[in-house]
Amino acid sequence: MRSLPTAAELLKIAREGLLNELLPHLPKEHHYTALMAANALAISMREIQADDGQHKAEAALLHELYGSAAPDEGMDALAGHLAHDLRAGRFDARLEAVGDLLLAEVTARLRVSNPKYLKQAGLN
Fold first, then answer.
1. Number of domains in the chain
2. Burial of 88 by CB count in 10 Å (0-12 exposed, 13-18 middle, 19+ buried)?
C-alpha cells in the first residue's frame, strides 16, 4: 500500500499552496507570473494523469488505421508517417477514419492543455 503522494497529488498540493497561501501575499505585479506557474502545474498534473491512457489510445487508433502495415518505430515516427502519407494522398479514400483519429488526438491534447475549451465547445 502506497502512503506517499503521487506526482500528480504533489503538483496539486503545490498549486493549491501557490494559489491559496502565496498569491494573496504577492505584490500585484507578480500575480500574472504566479498564475502562469499555477496553470503550468495544473497542465502537468493532467498530463501525468492522462499520459498512459492517452498514448495507448493514440497507438490503438494509429495501428487501426495502418493495420499490419504500421511501422514499428514508436509513436512519434508513426505520427510522422501519417503526416507524410496524408500529404501523399494515401488515405484520401479513408478521410473519415483519419478525421476520427485526428479529432480524438486533438481532444486528448485539449483534455490536458485546455479542458475548459472542450467543455465550452460541448466536446468533453
1. 1
2. exposed
User: Does 2 reside within a domain?
Assistant: no
Give per-residue pLDDT as tens, 76-110. Answer: 777 788 889 899 999 899 889 888 888 888 888 88
pLDDT tens per residue across span 27-76: 999 999 999 999 999 999 988 887 666 677 777 777 777 776 665 666 67
What does the DSSP 8-state code read for residue 94? G
1 falls within a domain = no
Q: Tell me how far apart the alpha carbons of residues 60 and 54 are, in angstroms, rounded to a whole number.
A: 10
Amino acid, res. 3: S
